[in-house]
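Quick one, tokens below. Sequence please?
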């Protein structure tokens, strides 16, 4: 997967005049602050425009890839749904909105809420270079998510990589508020870590209790069957640009972003039979699948003799199995 060309150019233009070595130094300092726990306080985490540029250059490609993957999985569950409006909460530089416009070109109105003024400025600069008319005309509002903010309902609402930066005591009220402004579909994304998954497991339960219908990744609305010590997450590979590799001091031309997500809707979607939870294990004549099914977690082996062999060969981590594809 590659960044859209207009987003890649916007990122590169934002870094002109800043030496890659300087960005690499700032990025290293940000990593140190993150390990020290400053990520939950943006005032002590992103302190300068250079901090914002370095953070965006190093993290935006991977978070865009995760947002795209989660929204693409959501779109597959409701293929006839074409949202007209999108609300991105805790938008950063607009990453999820860029992903949404790549999947739903029908979007006409985009609203973004972000607490950091420097991040909003950068996001507006990026959006001005977008091919999407909805992005170019997007509405940006500076707001503290833990404080008071008011927005009208939008067809699609996203919250990406935000919950883990907020006090856990604020999560329930924020999720309740998000659901109240969701006209149709809500997608929440977190890092694919044990903590990120546990935050989303609580969110999932809260939304189901509020009457939401699960779209993805779960094939059911029953209690999550994932055992303690394990976590449901997925992975999306994104190609690194030359400047990205230089800033991160990376040798590989790509990185794999691990993420967890939950997508819900006010309307039920067609059923799925299972979701692939890990990379399929391919061996001569057989494929091992780790699945979340309507009956819980299952491990299945598909062989060449099985009627579903051809379909199994095409499956990847994160894919859904439709009822007529179930092995």
């Amino acid at each position: 997967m590659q960044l859209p060309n207009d987003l890649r150019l916007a990122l590169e233009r934002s870094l002109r005049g800043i030496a890659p070595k300087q960005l690499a130094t700032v990025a290293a300092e940000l990593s140190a602050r993150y390990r020290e726990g400053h990520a939950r306080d943006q005032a002590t985490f992103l302190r300068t425009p250079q901090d914002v540029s370095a953070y965006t250059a190093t993290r935006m490609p991977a978070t865009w890839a995760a947002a795209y993957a989660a929204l693409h999985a959501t779109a597959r569950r409701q293929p006839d749904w074409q949202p007209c409006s999108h609300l991105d909460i805790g938008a950063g530089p607009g990453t999820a909105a860029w992903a949404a416009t790549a999947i739903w070109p029908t979007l006409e109105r985009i609203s973004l809420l972000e607490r950091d003024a420097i991040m909003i400025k950068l996001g507006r600069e990026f959006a001005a270079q977008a091919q999407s008319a909805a992005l170019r005309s997007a509405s940006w509002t500076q707001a503290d998510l833990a404080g008071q903010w008011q927005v009208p309902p939008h067809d699609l609402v996203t919250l990406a990589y935000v919950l883990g930066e907020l006090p856990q005591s604020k999560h329930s009220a924020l999720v309740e508020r998000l659901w109240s402004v969701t006209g149709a579909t809500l997608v929440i994304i977190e890092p694919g870590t044990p903590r990120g998954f546990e935050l989303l497991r609580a969110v999932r339960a809260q939304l189901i209790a509020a009457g939401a219908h699960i779209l993805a990744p779960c094939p059911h609305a029953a209690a999550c069957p994932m055992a303690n010590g394990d976590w449901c997450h997925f992975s999306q590979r994104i190609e690194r640009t030359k400047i990205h590799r230089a800033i991160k001091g990376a040798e590989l031309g790509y990185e794999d972003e691990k993420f967890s997500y939950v997508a819900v809707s006010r309307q039920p979607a067609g059923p799925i039979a299972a979701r692939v939870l890990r990379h399929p294990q391919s061996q001569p004549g057989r494929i091992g699948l780790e699945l979340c099914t309507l009956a819980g977690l299952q491990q299945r082996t598909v062989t060449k003799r099985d009627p579903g062999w051809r379909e199994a060969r095409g499956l990847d981590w994160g894919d859904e199995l439709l009822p007529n594809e179930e092995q």
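Residues 49-77 form the longest helix (29 residues). The mean pLDDT is 90.
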